[in-house]
Amino acid sequence: MAGIFDIELHDGDNVDQDESDDDDILEVAESEYNTHPDVNEILESEDVERVQLSEQTVNPSDEKVGPKDFELCKILGEGGYGKVFQVRKVSGKDKGSIFAMKVLCKASIIRNQKDTAHTKAERNILEAVKHPFIVNLIYAFQTGGKLYLILEYLCGGELFTYLDREGIFLEDTACFYLSEIILALQHLHKLGIIYRDLKPENILLDREGHVKLTDFGLCKEHIQEGTVTHTFCGTIEYMAPEILTRSGHGKAVDWWSLGALMYDMLTGMPPFTADDRKKTIEKILKGKLALPQYLTPDARDLIRKLLKRQVPQRLGSGPEDAEQIMNHNFFKHISWQDVISRKLEPPFKPSLKSADDTSQFDEQFTATVPVDSPVESTLSESANLIFEGFTYVAPSVLEGLYSQSKNSRSPRHQSLSSSHRRCYSPAANNRLSYQLQSRFTRGRNSLEDSEMMDVAQLSEHL
Fold this sequence. Notes:
Layout: H1 39-44, H2 55-58, E1 70-78, E2 82-89, E3 98-105, H3 106-109, H4 113-128, E4 137-142, E5 146-152, H5 159-166, H6 171-190, E6 203-205, E7 211-213, E8 234-235, H7 241-244, H8 252-267, H9 277-286, H10 297-306, H11 322-326, H12 336-340, H13 363-366, H14 381-384, E9 392-393, H15 395-408, E10 423-424, H16 449-461
Antiparallel strand pairs: 1-2, 2-3, 3-5, 4-5, 4-9, 6-7, 8-10
Helix pairs in contact: 6-8, 8-10
């Protein structure tokens, strides 16, 4: 059975028919290099490292990992497709290390073409993206019935937890988190990726208190300047108007979400909320933006410019992307070099007893006995081909293996209940967009097909 995927057509895609490699030629004078090197002399030099050829030194990437290499410690979250565990590695170079293990059921994913595509995209993005403020993928492997992603364990928990406890943030605190998030989004955009689900639940903190973006299940790849896509997805309260109206959206949707997140941090709730999703959508599309008087002029101005409904007027929508936002007066005291170097002091440092501390995660999950549920059915060999190439080992692990071979030699905004914080993806049958977070299922249920039609039709008529 061949894998079938939806193909989205992007406006503005260009293909260069005649590419030339002429620019790759180096002009070097003959006198600048040795045209007749003495190979024996080179081999006898003390500067040449001699390595015994073996399977380990020639191909050190053969660290085979599987479920048996990880001990289940705690459950961090649970959803319709699987679970997220805190695990300890029990073998290999990084024996004893603590990770987060995301387990997905193949049979559930493969029922929907878009779910399959989103899962593969998430795996590919996690491999491609390496950034100080984005979660690191360490391993990826699969069994007959399940997919496994092993990610760094972020023991600081969700930013939502700190917002929930504090009620609102001071502007200096919000500025710290926003600056790190902006650099993470800028990096994704440079790689042609739009995030599409920015919200406090998807922002985790490491043990020092620095930001890490997680949950890449709703990301879209291959979005360049001028390219748009039309998928209806995200979390309503942070969703840009152009997603709701399905008029086509690009990277600017992330800057709308940043504005909604900033407003949430400084006021205690997103800018447009209501008792039900239809009213919330109507407010996003037509409602007046109310800015509290206690906000500074710079904060008010930045929020206004990020929450412009007309995309060309929105800050960050142009070719300069994040640079427009970084140059705003709200960040006038920020050294962006210090931000990327993680030199700024985090406003909250998680109170942790050990590297495997789970106190920042929801006891609803961590108090449950961790069990990786057995697979009720396995896929056929042909169906499994859809997940070909899923296996991955991080370069840092491979470098370590190669090195070893050489050596061996407060409650907030009561009006916005968790039931309203829903994430909508185009999948059927209660797709959950998985995330490494303590409240794994909060606000992540998809709409049923009939509900999706209702919301889509509403947005078209508003």
